[in-house]
Amino acid sequence: MPWLQLKVQTDQTHVEAISDWLMDQGSLSVTFQDAADQPLFEPPPGETPIWSNTLITGLFAAQTGIEDIRSTLTEHFNDAITATRSEILEDKDWIREWMTHYQPMHFGHSLWIVPSHHSPPQADATNILLDPGLAFGTGTHPTTAMCLSWLAEHPPTGQQVIDYGCGSGILAIAAAKLGANQVQAIDNDPQALTATTDNALKNKVNRQIQCGGIDLPIPKQADTLLANILAGPLIELAEHFSKILKTGGNIVLSGILQEQAEPVMQAYQRWFSIKLTAQTEDWILLSGNRNNKI
């Protein structure tokens, strides 16, 4: 059965009112999209970010009188709406659709992320079995991809590794499969810890990976620390990371936009020799080593 979509373009001050109105008219869901290619950075505590020019999409059942709703919406909000349009959304086998678009991904010489519906392209490679789930991190985002490429080029054989902000556990699992002796996967989101635990078990590296919150005890200083989070938290964590990484140890930081690179590097220069190592689109990866300064 097809569905109907009503798309409404408006400014940020009217997003909540229009979305509430659409729900009152029987919309089954309401989603927001950027209508003008405007990046959103980290919001202050307690604030919900929204674009200045937002496209709201209401999803309705096929039998809904969508043109009547569209007409009433235009009359009700008048100048608050830039444009509206209605369209049919054909029903699909969304599982099959996902399977079509999520294919194995290759990093470095022989590291692969392989979805469960697909056979590994290289059976003797380092294959990580991973499907999209509740927690962030499947290798498709540039920040995760750059971290995976770094790991593939610098396998942590026999090392103590920390994955700070583990999400799905993809980096922790990659480190374990690439030879790490022990990996501590840390996140403040319980869903992330559940996802990491499940994915580690699926990949048979659960004995190498210890999951926990930000208060997880670090038994000894790590050889390598990976943090794919956001620029603000990375800046705040610089000194903490300096205390849990041994002298000469590797640090890998991602989740950073190009214009945020300089303040992040400045925050780490006291304890680390760090540089821009990779860039994909507007995202960058910083890496370096813990120096012997206090």
Structure description:
The chain has 294 residues and is an alpha/beta fold. The protein has 2 domains: 3-91, ACT domain (Alpha-Beta Plaits), CATH 3.30.70.260; 101-290, Rossmann fold. The chain has 9 helices and 14 strands. The protein has helices at residues 15-24, 66-77, 94-101, 142-153, 170-177, 190-202, 231-236, 238-244, 261-268; strands spanning 3-11, 29-34, 53-61, 81-89, 105-107, 111-114, 126-129, 160-164, 182-186, 209-212, 222-228, 245-257, 272-280, 283-290. The chain has a 7-stranded mixed sheet, with helices on both faces. It has a 4-stranded antiparallel sheet with strand order 2-3-1-4, with helices on one face. A 3-stranded mixed sheet has the order 5-6-7. α4 (142-153) runs parallel beside α5 (170-177). The longest helix has 13 residues, at 190-202. It is elongated and about 65 Å long.
Number of domains: 2
CATH superfamily of the largest domain: Vaccinia Virus protein VP39
Q: What's the overall average pLDDT, rounded?
A: 87
CATH architecture call of the largest domain: 3-Layer(aba) Sandwich
What's the number of extended β-strand segments?
A: 14
Structural class: alpha/beta
Rg = 23 Å
